[in-house]
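Why do we care about 3D structure at all? Because function follows from shape, and shape follows, mostly, from sequence. That is the central idea of this module. The next example makes it concrete: a single protein chain, its amino acid sequence, and then its structure expressed as tokens.
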Amino acid sequence: MECVIAASPASYTTIDGEHRHELEIKRSRFITVLRRVETEDEARALVAGLRKEFHDARHHCSAFVLGPDRGVQRSNDDGEPSGTAGIPMLEALTKRETAPGAADLSDVAAVVVRYFGGILLGAGGLVRAYSDSVSQALATARLIPRRRMRLFAVPAPHAGAGRLENELRSAGLTVLGTGYEERGALINVALADQPEVVEAFHARLAALTAGGPAPEPRGTKWVDLA
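And the structure:
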């Protein structure tokens, strides 16, 4: 039987830093904290920190999704009836459309702190409350697209580096900065990790430098685009 390996995604979306949102339902307070994280340890540290900050709350339910392929997904009900908190929170993260038809949110941890208001919500009410808490927080959070980029260092003489950097920016390329060394400058450029994009870059650079030194490949890197 042939084994098909799924290609790693070239882009995904995350959030900017930390974001908080509060919702009140039948006198219960649902305080949602979203934070950009890259590891399980960072996600768990968020939960631990909020347990201390909101030490008198009854529940600190959590969910997180990590990695460009969203390969790590975890949730925790923290004492709420099984399946009424963590899983709805996780689904709110994984099903969130960051663009029409695109659900690619990742590197995000969500914690919902609940202060019980004395009125039971029932299983269905809890599912809606935890799902809505995360969804409403995401609706007001700033989203950041990320793309896997090919990195190149473009050699340039000191005197011409500024002009060439401006021309590369004007051509729509992502310039990460310029480093100056004794032998000359190196303009660091990031390109979408696609063969046709790299080919077009080489052609454009050759035209700008009249066939000057070839760019030096520097591997790949995930880059925030906003």
